[in-house]
Amino acid sequence: MLDPMDLLRSNLSRVRIPEPTNRIYKQECCVSFATPKSEGGLFIDMSTFLAFGKDCVDWNYEKTGNPVYLHIKQTKKLVPEDRPLKKPTLLAIGVDGGFDNNEPEYEEAHNIVILPSYVSLPFPSVELPEKVRLAVDAILMAEGAERKEQLALWTADKKEISAYAMSLQQIDNGVIIPRSGWKCSKCDKTENLWLNLTDGMILCGRKNWDGTGGNNHAIEHYKETGYPLAVKLGTITADLEGADVFSYPEDDSVLDPLLAQHLAFFGIDFSSLQKTEMTTAERELDQNTNFDWNRIQESGQEVEPLFGPGYTGLVNLGNSCYLASTMQVVFSTQSFHSRYYLSQSLKAAFETAPADPTVDLNMQLTKLAHGMLSGKYSFPASEKIDIANAAAPMSSSKQEGIPPRMFKAVIAASHPEFSSMRQQDALEFFLHLLDQVERVNAGHPELDPSRSFKFGIEERLFCPSGKVAYNRRGDYILSLNIPLHEATNKDQLEAFNKLKAEKKAEGKEVSGDEIVRPRVPLEACLASFSAPEEVHGFYSTALKTKTTAVKTAGLTSFPDYLVLHMRKFVMEEGWVPKKLDVYIDVPDIIDISHMRSRGIQPGEELLPEAVDEGKVESEKLLANEEIVAQLVSMGFNHLHCQKAAINTSNAGVEEAMNWLLSHMDDPDIDFPISQEAENAEALSFVDQSKVDTLISFGFQEDISRRALRASGGDIEKATDWIFSNPDAASSSDMDATTSSTPTADAGLPDGGGRYRLIGLVSHIGTSTQCGHYVAHIYKDGRWVIFNDDKVGASINPPKDMGYLYFFERLSS
């Protein structure tokens, strides 16, 4: 047998010294959730710099033949009971001034291990070959790939100098700001106050998602005046860089190099002020530190913690609750449970993965499934602080959970928003997940678990000519409007609104326990989906003109799992987004058999195909010359007037003029009409997933399609287009196709229409991009709450507050 040192020397060709650009994994196994703290420690491949736990390192040796590993093992130190707590001052983890959370300290031991015999050599040692010593030093000194991503996302961005600071115009209106005693000029708020640096107005800040904060008067003042910069009163000290200056047009905290001069304009001597208010970053930090779950769901309930297979929590990586709640419900379905846990081992997924398993979605889904479902990581956590000289750490009722970092990185690779630390829409994430899963299983549809959610939708369009057309498409979610007029508690609502008006007249507000919210049955929401709906601006190939058709919809297939999305975010008059404060009464069992589409019926006549597209297009683009002539006589450009008439369907001079005034600055306003038609034809294909995303924002489907066509398929531009074209809601270019279109539900799962509620994702906050998401899942005969890494038996599941509802089809 070779001497250990000779064995190492014989394998030096398999050792690499890492370059600065190499990604080095040393905090977590690529295949499991083992860490240096795990019983077997962590093995870093000294050729690829990938990390493996004790159970997986043999698989890597068999696959790659790489024999040399750096073994890292961390052992907890005993810490005195009176260790002082450090308050964080920076929204960051693991950096000076960042979160400490009083984590225990660890001693770290290093060895060089050579497989397959696990021959071990201690490190550091002068006897080791220089190449090995240099390689190990570089690995240990490098920032781990996992840590790099974490710090890059958590550490607050460095403030930039505002583009408005150097040229800021200040109004000499005689305003002198006192040293204290500040109050909002428009309400009684005395905290979270902002001084506008243009006119000296003191106004309250934004209202937070949980109801705290200000009344939005400062930002409303900016919208009225356009005055760009404001400084938060109470954050101004001799150290002006610490002052919180916010730029409304740049929508960010900024630096103002002339802040001293701008403050002096209003009589403020910054050197004499003491800090009394938290900056925006500190307030955000404070809200992260003091997050109070009792204010969100199941308030004040003593939830029994649960542990074991299927009861593993997910660590919040920073506003990642949308991901955690969605994945908990997804892996509770039989299709995903079977595909990535029962039918695929970690070893099998690793063997089929590419050279870097951290970028393989199949591998990371399998890793996450085994981590969540095996029970291996679901046990009471050790207390953060061990009592000095204690024989064993004390156990806690909480669990540490597993961090889904690698899964988040790979699922977000094709979606930049999910790579950020910002809150995201759980619905958008769910649809993105299914899209990616469908893509990676494209060659093997029988293995694709996303198909268990997919179903067909058929829309029937009835034309005044008496003829019909049918459109079919596939979808993963049934997005439902909430008909508030169907509320079952109208008497209580009427009494509440009367009480609210009385209190408002007295200058008072209603208390939280007095608030009455509408209660709408789920059946009413489902009925609204199938209810007849008028489609204005429908081009009939039978009448050869635009008319009003009647649309009804139904399902052509019933999926294994039906996901209902409640459209709680709607557009008020003036296109202002608003969240509906409403309860949905959801039964445990629903029957949607009546929603099955019947297809073309005996005696129905289909609309003819549009044979002469050029003729149809020319007719659709014909402007009323009387309207055009009147607008031209007012001094408007002839081409612009033609476009105004066409885009308002020749409704009248007033409508066309309103369109003109709101579209004068459109980038394509001077394009020839024929060119617009060509552009429209080129953009006629619309990605259904993007349509679904816009629908989730609360927009109607036909408007979403028009917006995406007009913006070249860009979601952000499409949203801007909708806001810029409110008149688009009054017409539609959703021209019909006949039933000769290929069916969208070929090969999809199908069965009866009875379903049982198995899970829901609820949301608290003013928009889907803020607040908090939580999952409730029916498991083993009881409801269980999954709130990030906290898992427990639910006492009062909020079935009436769901954002997404997951139903499982019952067998006949």
TrEMBL record:
Residues 160-270 form the UBP-type domain. Recognizes and hydrolyzes the peptide bond at the C-terminal Gly of ubiquitin. Involved in the processing of poly-ubiquitin precursors as well as that of ubiquitinated proteins. Its EC number is 3.4.19.12. It catalyses: Thiol-dependent hydrolysis of ester, thioester, amide, peptide and isopeptide bonds formed by the C-terminal Gly of ubiquitin (a 76-residue protein attached to proteins as an intracellular targeting signal). Residues 312-810 form the USP domain. SMART domains: UBA (SM00165), ZnF_UBP (SM00290). It holds the Pfam family zf-UBP_var. InterPro entries: Papain-like_cys_pep_sf, Peptidase_C19_UCH, Ub_carboxyl-term_hydrolase, UBA, UBA-like_sf, Ubiquitinyl_hydrolase, UBP13_Znf-UBP_var, USP. It is an enzyme of class 3 (hydrolase). GO terms for molecular function: cysteine-type deubiquitinase activity; zinc ion binding. This is Ubiquitin carboxyl-terminal hydrolase. Zn(2+) binds at residues 184, 187, 204, 217. Residues 622-663, 685-725 form the UBA domain.
